Amino acid sequence: MADTLEFNEIYQEVKGSMNDGRLRLSRQGVIFKNSKTGKVDNIQASELAEGVWRRVALGHGLKLLTKNGHVYKYDGFRESEFDKLSDFFKAHYCLELAEKDLCVKGWNWGTVRFGGQLLSFDIGEQPVFEIPLSNVSQCTTGKNEVTLEFHQNDDAEVSLMEVRFYVPPTQEDGVDPVEAFAQNVLSKADVIQATGDAICIFRELQCLTPRGRYDIRIYPTFLHLHGKTFDYKIPYTTVLRLFLLPHKDQRQMFFVISLDPPIKQGQTRYHFLILLFSKDEDISLTLNMNEEEVEKRFEGRLTKNMSGSLYEMVSRVMKALVNRKITVPGNFQGHSGAQCITCSYKASSGLLYPLERGFIYVHKPPVHIRFDEISFVNFARGTTTTRSFDFEIETKQGTQYTFSSIEREEYGKLFDFVNAKKLNIKNRGLKEGMKQSYDEYADSDEDQHDAYLERMKEEGKIREENANDSSDGSGEETDESFNPGEEDDDVAEEFDSNASASSSSGDGDSDREDKKPAKKAKIVKDRKPRKKQPESKKGKDPNAPKRPMSAYMLWLNASREKIKSDHPGISITDLSKKAGELWKAMSKEKKEEWDRKAEDARRDYEKAMKEYSKADSHRGERSKKKKKKQEKQVKGKGDKKGATSKSSSSKSPAKGMSDSFKSKEFVSSDESSSAESKKEDSEDEGAASPPPSSEDSASGSD
């Protein structure tokens, strides 16, 4: 028989939520590693008291009871694995794996049994349901009634919040069954009550997450954060990891506490508690215990009187109470000598710390990524500038983290670190494939030539040269707009044409325009194509044929009503998701039918487009002829206006005789010229008529 048994995709029931992971049974005991948090539960073989095999919602489950009263539940087994597990338990643990089925009669009265940390509601000898008492947050009593309240579970869509038990009165004197029931629950329930004095208190510590200044009261079983607005009670059992990280300025320290489950404030969840300390701040600490109690409880890890840096005292006390190691940065050193890298995650700037077994980013939002959950990493060029790059991490669950705006000088150090840790690099080349896992990636050569680094340097040099060069080529329009003082010859030509056009308005402005020709001319040259762009980008022609739909869209239009009828009240987003699932699950033969329909629609579209393009070319020719005709009309009008201005200039001495008096001759000539100009505008052909003669004006005055 094998010495070990391993099972993947096993679910452990913890506080009402199912956490997936890997289960391994060996001679020494049972080990379960949580895939989400990396937390490891180790049950020694000598501690096992009972093993139960039963049918559950996810197939079959295994319930293990220890001698100290703890209960562990693992679901996700197949029925065929019972014999293998039963033989293993007999051979290595000397236990019979008992089969017990749950009662499904539906009765709501029975017997309550308390065993260790478990409340079991039984009908006869069969259990109906079990409640781990560690899930209970409060227990209240009434007349013949006990109410249990539970911690809210964030991972579950629906959480059980309350259960009430009716306890019938008994004839025994001196024993209240309701109080006895409540005492059994409270003795094992996870009810945090601040009884007694705190071991020590740290005053006014700066907390980044949750933000504010808090007094930290250290109790034997939990941590109490007392602020001006909020209070948090954190049991030490919820602490996963402790981190002590130096700030990049070498004057401050981060102390990070990882929590699971997180602390809550309304709808906000805080998975990390981050404290910020100054290295220069010292403290003298006296524990609220006598020396014998300190020695007995902490075994030399703490003393009654301690002094030193504030961050050292806090981390030392937390390490002793939580009984977990403190993680510090490893041997990584960045370009500036710091043990972290400045970068941005989402919208905030922070620090990324490469650790010996993972990465941690502080502080908003804090992120911790273990190496064993990383699928691959990727080095990407920065989107805004070549002086920085992005570092992307994708986990095995498909979650992607992008740390952007990392200085280019940090690339070599970070690449060497990732390479030494044997992480899979996505854009490394064809020699190392993405299929290799973290454990198998052991043959990578750390000293090999880094082609990506060389390519990145070359591209950066090319971009810098292009930014500094003058833009006189055909495809360098974007650079021209940033160098308006160049290409003086072209500017002068454009200015000359503009100056001649504007000279008719007045000679006095020409001198001022000559003094700054380049600026005006450059603006005109750059804006000419921009004015034409809106003309070329016309709106869609309503007569143009519509593009053909894909096979999926044809199927969706035909099936939309059926999906709505099968799922009443479904939203548009959920309908799209459901349609995508149905299309993905559809057989190849059915998809071919819709592919044929899409192909027919495409042929019809191409045929219609040919006919439309022919008709469009005829329309274009007609519009060109019409445009030429309009240009001729505008030219004829310009000639007539020039002749009119000459005749009016010959009469200018008569106008200047008096400013306050206008003769009838002046009024009539002015009205006749304006009438003629209106007439010219309404004519189809631009034939110029002779200006009014002096005889006509004289007759008008008579």
From TrEMBL:
Q: What does this protein do?
A: Component of the FACT complex, a general chromatin factor that acts to reorganize nucleosomes. The FACT complex is involved in multiple processes that require DNA as a template such as mRNA elongation, DNA replication and DNA repair. During transcription elongation the FACT complex acts as a histone chaperone that both destabilizes and restores nucleosomal structure.
Q: Which residues bind DNA?
A: 545-613
Give a yes or no for keyword Protein biosynthesis in this entry. no
Residue limits of the HMG box domain? 545-613
What is the species of this protein? Ptilorrhoa leucosticta
Where along the sequence do coiled-coil regions lie? none
The protein's name: FACT complex subunit SSRP1
Metal-binding as UniProt keyword: no
Query: Which segments show compositional bias classed as Low complexity?
Result: 497-507, 644-660
